[in-house]
Amino acid sequence: MKAILLSGGLDSITLAYWLRPQIAVTIDYGQRPARAELTAAAEVCKALGMQQEVITVDCSALGRGSLVDDRPVLDGPSPEWWPFRNQLLITLALMRLVNSQADELMLGTVAGDELHADGTPTFYASINQLVAAQEYAPRITAPAQAMSTEALVRTSGVPPEILMWSHSCQVSHLACGTCRGCVKRLDVLNALGLMDLQASR
């Protein structure tokens, strides 16, 4: 059985449509756009018939970057950098999945995410070694790691009505249109010829 860490963004939604895991885990860890992410993920789970597990753990006091507040991250690779975030989210997801039959947890990492250390092949190799030493040891995978978001969307065949649920803003539950997440989403929709749908959303 496969599970996915479903954030409600373009990449995780497209991956979920493409590979059809049975379980989706969505986590409100104190990030500012959590409300919209939870809504997007819930709608996609409903449309795809996936079981959704929602975890709420407020880690905002430990966060950094634009996902938490407007303070600049002077030592981070990007404005939204939240140190150890993927490691945290994987751990929380596995804690919830331990009584499931899931033997794989997929993340929507794509090409370009290696800007962050936890988006690299080295990270995935290391986290799999760590998980393998535990009593519950599903594989942690990033099936689209070598693909751009645009290529992933085209390969998956995800329909616009599913894709348009995505929320990629990093600073609010309402899309700001200017953060790195919003700009990426708009660029991908434009490349796919879906901007008219976006305008009517």
TrEMBL record:
Q: Which reaction does it catalyse?
A: 7-carboxy-7-carbaguanine + NH4(+) + 2 ATP = 7-cyano-7-carbaguanine + 2 AMP + 2 diphosphate + 2 H(+)
Listed A to Z, the keywords are:
ATP-binding, Ligase, Metal-binding, Nucleotide-binding, Queuosine biosynthesis, Zinc
EC number from the UniProt entry? 6.3.4.20
Its annotated pathway?
A: Purine metabolism; 7-cyano-7-deazaguanine biosynthesis
| GO MF assignments | ligase activity
Recorded hits in Pfam families, A to Z, give:
QueC (PF06508)
Q: Source organism's superkingdom?
A: Bacteria
What family does the entry list?
A: Belongs to the QueC family.
* Official protein name in the record: 7-cyano-7-deazaguanine synthase
Species, as recorded: Piscinibacter gummiphilus
Q: Which lineage do the record's taxonomy fields give for this organism?
A: Bacteria, Pseudomonadati, Pseudomonadota, Betaproteobacteria, Burkholderiales
